[in-house]
């Protein structure tokens, strides 16, 4: 280990600022750190699903199919010199890098490594127009390394860490960049990086690159010796995090129980940053007797998170805890606009020029970060440059959705300047129903699904319960999704949402409306009304419980029900429920042609009843899974 850089590294990496790096008190990383679940291998294919969908899919993958590996063992095999670690936003890649370096500096691991040089891509972006030799670059980024007048990767084991490839704004032209072998030759940062990765420069050096999945394909496969994936927290690690984060163990148990009660929230807890957001919200609501319904959905959780940050700021600086400040509302809108426009571009980090394009005065940017110190952050980096970001991609997506929603209902024509893209599609909307239809259409046009969670938040904000929470930021409330004669909507997918009693009542009223032309709805509702045109119902990955199965059976026996296709994949329906469904489908009035009961628990009795159903002359089933 280096004798003159490890003390500097230790001071820089020993502390951990959870959520935001420049605000609030820090915690010793060794006290708060919870081991992450990291696996070897990984497909080189591009996954075009939204990252939250990838988390949901991975959560159902059997652990027996994977080979776990610890960060400190990445280079244990001496033949491995270049490692690419993938992981969705906020899953813990940067913290893993920080812990790796801290363990090295403390003498706990990888003591055969003489020097570690960490380069975040967000900092390298600031010098993309400048030229350096590799030696000069090291001296500029790490002043204590100036004692090194030459670099010999055969004499010393040297490691480079390039964190955040997805944030890289360099071309990384592996195909056409010049070949470079001299560490003292001056060239662009881009050329230095591609030659390091291709092992033309310092071929014996170790390289560790981290990236979100989609951007990882920028590195040619033949330039990677090992691919790993940070999967975030396993279920036991989720509990460990909450118990470390919250000193009151009774309160921690309540929070863990609540998170487990909501499938969508518990899946999101694979992401450490989301655990922090949930802990921030629920610790206040459970621990300080905050009034209001405990959040059970993603939209509710992020809405409460935003409100708490605004209240904290107003209480700290103005002695008030309300959210109806006009100034606060305007600043939230500006941050939302920044979130929206950068989301369209696929950017999670922004620079001064990005803020200027959005109409934010860089000199006053601290005012915006002051509105929500735990949401928007400003970092001072090398070369007097500044880097800005939201605490997590999901927070950016929520603020972007809030901006689009507030702008529409307030009749603020902030969209008129946009002539192409997603905003243009929303700009044409004249009614709330058109607004949501256009939003769905625009999101579906995204090839990589990057607007999926944004759309989920946008639809969640249409619920009156969430509008009530945001009443201080709204100029009008009470907007509902009622039908109108001009609506042409035929399909509506509300999977993975929980509308609550009020939302179900609104959906029921909507379906009974004679103007409603819906033919396909992916959520439960009153289908027994004679005017209902619905033929397909998808309840997959919901858990209806005993009462829900009873209602479903009653529905299937109703002569007015015209359902022909029912999807009940992974609904945790037990033996008794499967038997009840089989009995209901024997009804002469049943029109059911296709039934999917995959990944449920029918048991022997349920299987027998379903088999007998297929032999029943009244049964119209043509396909049973």
TrEMBL record:
Q: Where in the cell is it found?
A: Cytoplasm
Q: Does the keyword Phosphoprotein apply?
A: no
Annotated Gene Ontology cellular components are: cytoplasm
InterPro entries, sorted: Leu-rich_rpt, LRR_dom_sf, NACHT-assoc, NACHT_NTPase, NLR, NLRP_HD2, NOD1/2_WH, P-loop_NTPase
Q: For the NACHT domain, which residue ranges apply?
A: 81-215
Ordered alphabetically, the record's keywords are: ATP-binding, Cytoplasm, Leucine-rich repeat, Nucleotide-binding, Repeat
GO molecular function (one): ATP binding
Q: What is its main location?
A: cytoplasm
Query: Gene3D superfamilies from the entry?
Result: P-loop containing nucleotide triphosphate hydrolases, Ribonuclease Inhibitor
Name this protein carries in UniProt: NACHT domain-containing protein
């Amino acid at each position: 280990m280096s004798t003159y850089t490890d003390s500097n590294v230790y001071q820089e990496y020993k502390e951990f600022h959870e959520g935001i790096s420049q605000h609030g008190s820090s915690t010793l990383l060794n006290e708060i750190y919870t081991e992450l679940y990291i696996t070897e291998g990984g497909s080189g294919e591009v996954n075009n699903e939204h990252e939250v969908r990838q988390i949901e899919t991975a959560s159902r993958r059997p652990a027996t199919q994977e080979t776990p590996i610890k960060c400190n063992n990445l280079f244990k095999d001496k033949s491995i010199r270049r490692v690419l670690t993938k992981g969705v936003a906020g899953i813990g890649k940067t913290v893993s890098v920080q812990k790796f370096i801290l363990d090295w500096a403390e003498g706990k691991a990888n003591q055969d490594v003489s020097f570690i040089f960490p380069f975040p891509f967000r900092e390298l972006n600031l010098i993309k127009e400048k030229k350096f030799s590799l030696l000069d670059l090291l001296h500029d980024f790490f002043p204590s390394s100036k004692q090194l007048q030459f670099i010999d990767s055969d004499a010393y084991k040297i490691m480079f860490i390039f964190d955040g490839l997805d944030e890289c704004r360099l071309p990384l032209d592996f195909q056409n960049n010049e070949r470079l072998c001299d560490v003292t030759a001056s060239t662009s940062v881009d050329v230095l990086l591609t030659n390091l990765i291709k092992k033309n420069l310092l071929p014996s050096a170790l390289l560790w690159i981290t990236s979100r999945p989609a951007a990882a394909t920028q590195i040619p496969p033949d330039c990677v010796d090992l691919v790993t994936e940070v999967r975030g927290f396993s279920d036991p690690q989720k509990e460990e995090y909450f118990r470390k984060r919250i000193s009151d163990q009774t309160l921690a148990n309540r929070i863990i129980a609540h998170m487990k009660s909501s499938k969508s929230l518990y899946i999101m807890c694979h992401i450490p940053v989301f655990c922090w957001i949930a802990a921030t919200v629920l610790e206040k609501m459970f621990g300080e007797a905050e009034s209001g319904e405990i959040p059970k959905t993603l939209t509710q959780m992020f809405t409460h998170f935003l409100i708490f940050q605004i209240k904290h700021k107003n209480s700290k600086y103005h002695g008030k805890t309300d959210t109806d400040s006009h100034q606060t509302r305007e600043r939230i809108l500006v941050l939302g606009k920044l979130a929206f426009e950068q989301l369209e571009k696929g950017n999670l980090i922004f620079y001064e020029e990005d803020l200027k394009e959005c109409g934010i005065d860089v000199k006053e940017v601290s005012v915006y970060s002051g509105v929500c110190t735990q949401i928007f952050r400003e970092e001072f980096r090398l070369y007097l440059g500044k880097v800005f970001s939201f605490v997590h991609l999901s927070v950016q997506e929520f603020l972007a959705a809030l901006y689009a929603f507030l702008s529409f209902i307030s009749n603020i024509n902030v969209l008129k300047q946009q002539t192409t893209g997603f905003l243009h599609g929303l700009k044409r909307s004249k009614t709330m129903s058109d607004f949501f239809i256009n939003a769905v259409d625009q999101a579906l046009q995204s090839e990589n699904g990057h607007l999926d969670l944004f759309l989920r938040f946008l639809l969640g904000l249409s619920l009156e319960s969430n509008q009530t929470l945001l009443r201080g930021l709204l100029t009008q409330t009470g907007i509902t999704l009622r039908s109108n004669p001009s609506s042409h909507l035929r399909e509506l997918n509300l999977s993975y949402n929980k509308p609550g009693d009020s939302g179900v009542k609104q959906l029921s009223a909507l379906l009974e409306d004679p103007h409603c032309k819906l033919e396909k709805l992916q959520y439960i509702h009153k289908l027994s009304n004679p005017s209902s045109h619905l033929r397909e119902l998808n309840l997959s990955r919901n858990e209806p419980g005993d009462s829900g199965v009873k209602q479903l059976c009653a529905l299937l026996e109703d002569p007015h029900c015209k359902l022909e296709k029912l999807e009940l994949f992974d609904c945790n329906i037990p033996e008794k429920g499967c038997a009840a469904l089989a009995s209901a489908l024997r009804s002469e009035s049943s029109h059911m042609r296709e039934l999917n009961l995959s990944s449920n628990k029918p048991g022997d009795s349920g299987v027998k009843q379903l088999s007998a159903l297929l032999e029943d002359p009244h049964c119209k089933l043509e396909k049973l899974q």
